[in-house]
Design a protein that fits this description.
single chain, alpha/beta, Rossmann fold, 2 domains, 11 strands, 38% helix
C-alpha cells in the first residue's frame, strides 16, 4: 500500500477527504494533517497540527509521498501582498522525501504562482487542481473527485428559473456583481458557510449554478454539472485549449464576462433551453468525471511524484 501524507492549513472543499476514500481501493493510503477544521466534514481528517505533530512525524517517516498545499493559509490567502513560503507545517521533512506541492488556488497564489512554482519546484513536483495553473505553469493536473449523489430535475414548463451561487470566497467570485445581474432573472439562492451536504441538497433544487469568472472551472463547477445544473463559469482561451487537448472540453455555455452571464440568464428564461443545457452538462460529467476514473488519474500523478 502506497502511503501519502497531505499537509496544509486545511483541506479545501474536502478534496483530500474524497481522495482518501477513492484512492484506497487503488492501493493508496491517504492521511491528512491540517491546522484548521473549518467545516463539520473536517472532523474526519486524521490529525491536527501542531497538536499531533509527533504522531504525524511518525507517519511521515514511512510515507512514500508528502503532498503540501501552499498559499491557502487564512486569512492572507485571500489578500494581495508578498509570497509566503511555508515549510511542511514545521514537520521534519528532508530533501530525500518525495514531495508534491499542490496549488488549490487563492488570491495570493494567483498573484505569485510563478514564484511558488519556481521555489517549490526545486524541492519536488508542482501540480494544481485547476487548469488555469496547469496551463500557466505547465505543471501536473490533479483533478478533483466529485462523488455527490444529489441530482437536480430538468426544468419543466411553468417553473421559475432557480439559480444557485455557492462561493468559497465571494471576493474572488464576482459575487456582488452576479447578485445584481441575477435580480429579476429567477429565484436566486445564495449559499455561504453551509456544510457541504446541505449545499448539495440546495443545488439539487436549482436549474442553474454560477461559479466565478476567474478563467477556469473549479470543484464548484464540477459539482454543478454532476448534479445537473446549467453551469456558468468564466473560462479563458488557455483553459479552453488545455481542456480540449485533454479531451475533457466541458459541455456548458461559453462564458467570459458578466455581460455573458446576463445574456445567458436571458436565454435561459426558456424552460426547454434550460432543460437541454442541464442534460448536456450532466451527460458530460457522467462521461468524464466518474469518481473512480478521476481517482485513477489522481493516483497516476501521485505515483509519478513518488518516483521522482
Amino acid at each position: 500500500m502506497m502511503r501519502v501524507l497531505v499537509i496544509g492549513s486545511f483541506d479545501p472543499c474536502c478534496v483530500h477527504l474524497r481522495q482518501r476514500k477513492w484512492l484506497k481501493p487503488l492501493g493508496i493510503d491517504v492521511r491528512i494533517a491540517v491546522r484548521e477544521r473549518y467545516w463539520e466534514e473536517h472532523a474526519a481528517v486524521d490529525w491536527e497540527l501542531p497538536r499531533d505533530r509527533d504522531i504525524v512525524n511518525d507517519y511521515a517517516r514511512t510515507a512514500d509521498l508528502w503532498v503540501f498545499l501552499p498559499a491557502i493559509e487564512q486569512p492572507w490567502s485571500s489578500e494581495t501582498g508578498g509570497p509566503i513560503v511555508e515549510n511542511f507545517g514545521e514537520l521534519d521533512w528532508t530533501p530525500e522525501r518525495s514531495a508534491l506541492f499542490l496549488l488549490h488556488g487563492s488570491r495570493n497564489a494567483v498573484q505569485h504562482a510563478d514564484y511558488y512554482a519556481q521555489i517549490y519546484g526545486q524541492r519536488g513536483m508542482v501540480a494544481a487542481t485547476t487548469l488555469d495553473y496547469v496551463a500557466r505553469l505547465n505543471c501536473e493536473y490533479v483533478p478533483s473527485i466529485v462523488d455527490t449523489v444529489e441530482r437536480a430535475t430538468p426544468r419543466r414548463d411553468g417553473e421559475p428559473l432557480r439559480i444557485v451561487h455557492a462561493p468559497s470566497d465571494p471576493s474572488m467570485c464576482s459575487t456582488s456583481e452576479f447578485r445584481h445581474v441575477a435580480q429579476g432573472k429567477g429565484q436566486l439562492t445564495y449559499l455561504n458557510g453551509l456544510p457541504h451536504a446541505s449545499a448539495m441538497r440546495f443545488k439539487a433544487r436549482a436549474h442553474v449554478g454560477y461559479d466565478h469568472l476567474r478563467g477556469s472551472f473549479s470543484l464548484n463547477s464540477l459539482e454543478n454539472a454532476t448534479v445537473g445544473l446549467v453551469n456558468l463559469v468564466g473560462m479563458s482561451d488557455a483553459v479552453m485549449g488545455e481542456s480540449e487537448r485533454r479531451g475533457i472540453l466541458p459541455h456548458w455555455p461559453r462564458i467570459r464576462t458578466m455581460d455573458d452571464i446576463r445574456a445567458w440568464l436571458e436565454r435561459l428564461q426558456d424552460p426547454r433551453e434550460t432543460a437541454w443545457w442541464q442534460d448536456r452538462g450532466r451527460a458530460w460529467a457522467e462521461r468524464w468525471w466518474k469518481p473512480e476514473d478521476v481517482a485513477r488519474r489522481v493516483a497516476n500523478v501521485y505515483r509519478k511524484a513518488a518516483r521522482q
